[in-house]
Amino acid sequence: MERFYITTPIFYVNAKPHLGHAYTTIVADSLSRFHRLMGEETFFLTGTDEHGDKIVQAAESHGQSPQEYVDIISKLFRDLWPSMNISNNDFIRTTEPRHIEVVQSILQKVYDSGDIYFGEYGGHYCFGCERFYTEKELVDGLCPDHQTKPEYIAEKNYFFKMSKYKDWLRDHINKNPDFIRPEQYRNEVLGLLDSGDLEDLCISRPKLRLTWGIELPFDKDYVTYVWFDALINYLAALDYPNGEKFKEFWPSANHLIAKDILKPHAIFWPTMLKAAGIEPYKHLNVHGYWLVKDTKMSKSIGNVIEPLAMKDSYGLDAFRYFLLREMSFGQDSSFSEDALIGRLNADLANDLGNLFSRTLSMTHKYFEGVVPRPDVEDIIDAEIKKLGQDAMKSFQSFYGELKFSRGLEGLWELVRGLNKYIDSTAPWTLYKNEDMARLSTVIYVLLENMRKIAVHLWPVMPESSEKMLEQLGINFDPEKFNLPKELDVWGLLESGDTVAKSSNLFPRVEMPEPKPETQNGKNGKNEKKSMKQKTESGGTIEFEDFQKLDMRIGTVKEVEKHPDADRLLLIRVDTGEDELRQVVSGIADHFAPDDLIGKQVVVVANLKPRKLRKQLSQGMILAVKSGDGLQLLTPSGDVDSGSKVS
Ligand code: MSP
Known about the structure:
It is built from 22 helices and 26 strands. It is of the alpha/beta class.
């Protein structure tokens, strides 16, 4: 049996999990599920990286001991994954004895073979990166990543003879073109090797400076450098050297990382493995970075996207689908809730959701919910079957090559093709003409294709896939379904089985008005709350909910342009209070300030005040979109300023 071993980086526990961590882990989960459905035995590992300066500093800033601190943050990661439907088989922590043992045994092995030596080293040490920089690597004397001045440190340390393996590594990469993929990263690594900069790697830290690490087995005054410690987790979890799992899974090792940690994985790790007499991993799979409005996510900018918040606002599967569909693997991508809503509405609610709800309701209307036996065939059925086969083939081959976006695009050819098939075969006309023989085939073709789509979507949206299959009367068992077989089999859906009456797995989400806060990443939270998903019952709220709104008529007295934002106006309205109320509103594209003076508008007066681009906004003015334009809501006749809207 083929096997597939997939790993994520073990994440540092100096920060809470965010979109970036979630993306890598969702991709790993998706790949693990995909390979399971391809008939392989899979092992999926994630975990946390808990040693080093960074962690000590983070613990100190929280007034905790390193152990207390790592226990708390590691648990945040461990607890997050089940709620994102992550199906990891193991979760490793670098503070666990099983890991420490393997790190020490490998260190000893490499030391004994003569590839670790003791020497003096002086270098520019960046505490943020936990590494030494050469003069050449600094940019204007600063760390290229942190833009801080590194500290010059000279000390005695242990070194790994990495330079000795440079030619072997270059050769290995050349002989195995997909060892590092996509190609741009392979080229980057070859470039690094050719630039002649590959020095030996300093792999220890004196305990005088750092005690929070794994002690070197051959010198108790030193601890192991974080990367030499962390990378070995990939072996420790397989019970290297004697474990069954190591024998079974290591030959299929696939590491998944983002470009930020390319060098340790592409250069340190294979040379470490070589020195320890272990075969190199099979593939290093490198993806790009998620940016927010083209900027790196950062706590200080306040644009960090929290995966749980996305799940709560849009549903986990829509979030997973978006991440896999939107990012072209290897490239950077920009995350925005607008783009997510766009995809959710177009691909999921419109294309996929409609296909399911239309077909199920037709099955009920024409066949009382029972899967009909196919009867009279037409050329169009053969065409759609062929389209289905091509779509599934394309999904399977692209997905296996980590081209998730293209794989999904391929599968959607079938989703859209089936919607067109409904329109062309017009089941309602067949029913009207009492052509039940033809109608049976049409509905069967739709249902059987929907089954195939649902199975293919399990790696992407596991929960929805299982629900879709349940709606088709099937209990999903990943061991029983096999994607390659789906290309050939037809007719697994049993005639006579009953299907669900309706399906509303992907309710549409209202696209928010182009609100001022969308220009400001800091207000992501407000945005999320305002985008309430319609519920299956049609999005009703209780009367008391409505009563919570304090809406009043305001008369516009003064308007000026926002000094720092072209799309915003500062509108001061008389709402019957002692002072005018200022509302910052994103309507400058539609109204000139003078047009608004004297107008009566509806103001939501009890919205929590907040600053938009440094200007205080005390409420919201209601407007309605009309074509490309915008109209303000206004009373049909003059009323007193401050009158309550009810
Ligand atoms: N602890 C090391 C890894 C050791 S592996 C032996 C580490 N940890 S980390 O917490 O900084 O995680 C880095 C990884 O998080 C990236 O390689 C990527 O998988 C993920 N991401 C963090 N931010 C990201 C984005 N903005 N976009 C996409 N993924 C990113 O490095």
